[in-house]
Amino acid sequence: MGEIMTIGIVDDNSIYRKLLIKILQLGGFSVIFQAEDGIDCLSKMESNPLMPCLVLMDIEMPVMDGFETTRQLKIRWPHLKIIAHSSIDDIEAIERIMQCGADTFLPKPCSINQMMAAIKEFQ
């Protein structure tokens, strides 16, 4: 087995972030930061000594939404993998987040197996 995959979580729901961290840690992943909105995410990406391999990105957030955050991340860190993870299942929003640079979309809620499978696609 190679290096432990590093992950950032961007979601305005603190309870959901905590749940995701537990699930990901149980799956053998390392969550290196969590952010409550896009501005928080960009700040943590710039200041964190470790770079995540992948970011789980909510779409609907205050301050800076997932669309703009994804666009900014891909401009600054084009190699970064982004899984958009949202309760929005409207086809236009999914197409828009993919156009902003998300690598895949995962609906909320999803099973732990679906989450692990989506992340392992990028290992």
Beta strands, count: 5
The CATH homologous superfamily corresponds to Response regulator
Structural class: alpha/beta
Portion in beta strands: 15-25%
Number of helices: 5
For the record, the CATH class is Alpha Beta
InterPro entries: Bact_response_regulator, CheY-like_superfamily, Sig_transdc_resp-reg_receiver
Domain Response regulatory: 6-123
Protein name: Response regulator receiver protein
Modified residues (4-aspartylphosphate): 58
Describe the structure.
With 123 residues, this protein is α/β, with parallel strands linked by helices. 42% of the residues lie in helices and 20% in strands. It has a five-stranded parallel sheet with strand order 2-1-3-4-5, with helices on both faces. Strand 3, helix 3 (66-76) and strand 4 form a beta-alpha-beta unit. Helix 2 runs parallel beside helix 3. Keywords: Phosphoprotein. One of its GO terms (biological process) is phosphorelay signal transduction system.
Short description:
With 123 residues, the chain is an alpha/beta fold. The chain is built from five helices and five strands; from the N terminus they run βαβαβαβαβα. The chain has a single domain, classed as Response regulator (Rossmann fold, 3-Layer(aba) Sandwich), CATH 3.40.50.
